[in-house]
Amino acid sequence: MVVGCHDGALKLKITAPPVEGKANRQCVEFLSKILKLPKASIKIVAGTASKRKTVCITFPEDPDGKAELDRVMALLQTL
């Protein structure tokens, strides 16, 4: 669940325990669901062992990639 935006970052409530990557997987699954993107396009690039994580979202390198980026950015503005 999205709890809010704080210091330019989304704050999520994750219920999975931070054991064996379970919380990280749930974070990626949740972002995939709310952003309507494949899980493979969302990767945690920093903070895998921390509460504060940095994710990288990849988009196709074609004309639809720009449209997807615009769609996700608009969606993030509503959260």
Describe the structure.
With 79 residues, the chain is an alpha+beta fold. The chain has a single domain (2-78), classed as 2-Layer Sandwich (Conserved Hypothetical Protein Mth637, Chain: A), CATH 3.30.1200.10. The chain has two helices and four strands; from the N terminus they run E-E-H-E-E-H. The chain has helices at 22-35, 63-78, and strands at 2-6, 9-12, 42-46, 54-57. A two-stranded antiparallel ribbon has the order 1-2. Strands 3-4 form a two-stranded antiparallel ribbon. Strand 1 and strand 2 form a beta hairpin. It is globular, with a radius of gyration of 13 Å. The relative contact order is 0.14.
Q: What descriptive keywords fit this protein?
A:
single chain, 79 residues, 4 strands, 2 helices, alpha+beta, two-stranded antiparallel ribbon, Conserved Hypothetical Protein Mth637, Chain: A, two-stranded antiparallel sheet
Give a brief rundown of this model.
By secondary structure, the protein is an alpha+beta fold. Helix content is about 40%, strand content about 25%.
Shape: globular
Corresponding CATH architecture: 2-Layer Sandwich
The largest β sheet comes out as: 2 strands, antiparallel
What integer is the average pLDDT?
89
Our measurement of the CA-to-CA distance between the termini, rounded to an integer number of angstroms, reads 11 Å
CATH-level-4 superfamily name: YggU-like
Secondary structure category: alpha+beta
Strand order within the widest sheet?
Answer: 1-2
Q: Into which percentage range does the β-strand content fall?
A: 15-25%
**Under the CATH scheme, which class?**
Alpha Beta
Helix content class: 25-40%
List the secondary-structure elements in sequence, H or E.
Answer: EEHEEH
Care to count the β-strands? 4
Unreliable spans: none
Number of helices: 2
